[in-house]
Amino acid sequence: MKTRRVTIKDIAEMAGVSKATASLVLSGRGKEMRVAQETRQRVLTIAREQHYQPSIHARSLRDNRSHTIGLVVPEMTNYGFAVFSHELEMLCREAGVQLLIACTDENPAQESIAVNNMVARQVDGLIIASCLHSDADYRKLSQQLPIVLFDRCPGKSDLPLVMTDSITPTVDLISRIAQKHRDEFWFLGGQPRLSPTQDRLAGFTQGLIKAGVELRPEWVINGSFHPSSGYEMFAALCARLGRPPKAVFTAACGLLEGVLRYMSQHHLLASDIHLASFDDHYLYDSLSVRIDTIQQDNKLLAWHCFELLNQLINGETPQSRQRCLPATLQLRFR
């Protein structure tokens, strides 16, 4: 059998009132328009029993908004993006806004499809962690609807942006570790043209300089931000050295996941390798291997993205269109 949604007309017929009266009660204006309390109660009770929900399309036509925003991320299983998405969804829920989420798998073509689908669904605004190398498409699209970039800055964009300061805490962490490992310190990064790789490599390089260590070009290895890339880079490094490396910094949590998987499979978790990474995970406190990390505040990132996008949707002028948030060190090597 074909199902049918319960309408205001249905509620009115069941309650024995006019459609106009049912509409007033269900919109919360019954008391204001002097609808009898008994009638209001009867309409509301029937609506509750019938699981009636007002049409979002009608609300959208009335407000000239869809009351939805779109979030586009490279990878849903990435811990940082997952936590960010959860925090953003809670903010949306509290504000009565629906969050639509799409994943690009670090594929520019898939990103374009995801964004176009969001626009076709008439979202009020977009929050995007882009894998594109230029913001040209988003500068054009921002003339149609508000856009906030986060986590990544394609082509040094001047579009509204929220991201974590990658350089300062990386300098601090690397300079500490390099004091103990002056002769060997490896950097495993993602795609070299993406801003997170560039910024974290800049912090890594400056951290070595601060410790009085000269960066050797062979210490820098780049792949992608997927865990499989971290696994492959670390496996190739161990094969090249004929032993585990002495110290490694991974540019993201996903890369470290691949490294840990290789170490587990090859019984290296008890080795004295000094592991460090950008991004933290609560499980790192439970591992036998110690890992120094740089922890982003995903809750704060989500709040700033949500606030900035809402200001743009409401036609307000934000005090700051580009926001760089601090990170904290989680030091487990003592």
TrEMBL record:
SMART domains according to UniProt: HTH_LACI (SM00354)
Annotated HTH lacI-type domain residues: 6-63
Nucleus found in the keyword field: no
Presence of keyword Disulfide bond: no
Any one Gene Ontology molecular-function term assigned to this protein's record: DNA binding
InterPro entries: Fruct_sucro_rep, HTH_LacI, LacI/GalR-like_sensor, Lambda_DNA-bd_dom_sf, Peripla_BP_I
Keyword line: DNA-binding, Repressor, Transcription, Transcription regulation
Matches recorded under Pfam families: LacI (PF00356), Peripla_BP_3 (PF13377)
Protein name: LacI family DNA-binding transcriptional regulator
Source species of the chain: Citrobacter meridianamericanus
